[in-house]
Amino acid sequence: MAIDTLGYMKYLEGHGVPRAEAEAHAEAVSQFLFPQLATRADLRDLEQRLTIRVGSMMVAVAGLSIALAKLI
After folding, report:
1. Which residues contact 10 (CB under 8 A, 6 or more apart)?
2. Are 22 and 12 in contact (CB under 8 A)?
């Protein structure tokens, strides 16, 4: 995920934050906060993995149910 650090810095400056502090804050947010956030691609990958896992569990439960039904 990218952040417009220049735009963010200019926004802070425009609201009274000194330039050096605005630059430091924009760089800190870019380096330390945004890399920790999930992207849309991350969420799509997670959704796919969860769908496969839940589908596998459903097949396993169906198989066990059929096996148990045959034992009874």
Report:
1. 22
2. yes
pTM of the model: 0.52
The residue type at 53? R
Residue identified by tokens 């009274």 is 16
Output the CA angle 45-46-51, nearest 5 degrees: 100
Residue-level pLDDT at 2: 66
Per-residue buried b or exposed e for 36-48, using 16+ beta carbons within 10 Å of the residue's own CB: eeeeeeeeeeeee
Query: Judging by beta carbons within 10 Å of its beta carbon (0-12, 13-18, 19+), is residue 13 exposed, middle or buried?
Result: middle
